[in-house]
Design goal:
alpha+beta; NADH Oxidase; 6 helices; globular; Nitroreductase; oxidoreductase
């Protein structure tokens, strides 16, 4: 089967980019509520909904959260990703293992993070649809965030999502086409030619 010719790709799935430069404009609470609500509509194993979201909007707390990130490509020589503190909000996505483990036992440790990342994807797409940019930050000191946010032992922070209106237009990075990530009936047999 050859790669089909697709119509122009539009909408939040195709418009979403990782943005690290923000306008310094407040996101209305009603829109934050819509974004979080979109997350709660994600699919979840056994409908256990293991997600928890800490919304950080205080300047000093955002600075402390940024200090817990690892230096990355975009840290410009700093010891942490300081651009994170400039976002209007930082959503700290957490997994509450109790809910999924109650139904699935030890398998819940594998499934609950998958469910939570589905919720994060919904939130990122809902934000994009409303003109709000974001960037998933996975490089952070878990124990530092846990201590700073008073996260209990059965809850695990898995990602920081700074969000706000973008200051600049960020270009979409090249993505692998369907041809390169699909297999037909068994591994390593191309589905698309």
């Amino acid at each position: 089967m050859s790669d089909p010719v697709l119509p122009k790709q539009t909408g939040p799935i195709y418009e979403r980019v990782s943005c690290r430069s923000f306008e310094n404009r407040e996101i209305p609470e009603a829109i934050v509520h819509e974004i979080i609500t979109a997350g709660t509509y994600a699919p979840a194993s056994g409908n256990m909904q293991p997600w928890e979201f800490i919304i950080v909007d205080e300047i000093e707390t955002k600075k402390q959260v940024a200090e817990q990130t690892f230096a990355g490509f975009y840290s410009k020589g700093a010891k942490s990703q300081q651009w994170v503190k400039d976002a209007g909000i930082i959503i700290i996505a957490c997994v509450n293992y109790k809910r999924t483990i109650a139904r699935y036992g030890e398998l819940g440790y594998a499934w609950a993070p998958i469910d939570t990342t589905s919720a994060v994807q919904n939130m990122i797409l809902a934000a994009t649809e409303r003109g709000i940019a974001s960037c998933w930050v996975g490089g952070f000191k878990e124990e530092g965030i846990r201590e700073l946010m008073h996260v209990p032992s059965y809850v695990k922070p898995i990602g920081l999502i700074p969000m706000e209106y973008p200051a600049i237009k960020t270009e979409q990075k090249q993505k692998l086409g369907a041809k390169w990530v699909t297999h037909k009936n068994t591994y390593n047999i191309p589905y698309f030619n």
